[in-house]
């Protein structure tokens, strides 16, 4: 976390896409509290204050082990930027 925040502070990006593999591990039932803490800590960090649009996509459906991916994707958009996400089902931007 410290290295990520240090890099954000140094580079001053306007858009961040952070992709995590095995996020929460394959035993999500027992590690979901750690994931929640990580997400809360990351988005509440003072260095992230200028990212006013944040989208987080986590695979939290561990009901079928053979389909559970443990993937997590985080998108941070700086307040100076304008961005939308395409809704594939509805065929529109949100």
TrEMBL record:
This is Uncharacterized protein. Keywords: Hydrolase. One of its GO terms (molecular function) is inositol-polyphosphate 5-phosphatase activity.
């Amino acid at each position: 976390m410290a290295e990520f925040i240090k890099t954000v502070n140094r580079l001053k990006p306007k858009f961040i896409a952070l992709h995590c593999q095995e996020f929460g591990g394959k035993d999500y039932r027992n590690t979901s509290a750690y994931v929640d803490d990580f997400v809360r800590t990351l988005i509440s960090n003072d260095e992230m204050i200028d990212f006013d649009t944040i989208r987080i996509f986590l695979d939290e459906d561990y009901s079928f082990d053979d389909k559970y991916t443990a993937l997590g994707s985080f998108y941070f958009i700086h307040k100076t930027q304008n961005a939308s996400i395409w809704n594939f089902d509805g065929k529109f931007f949100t």
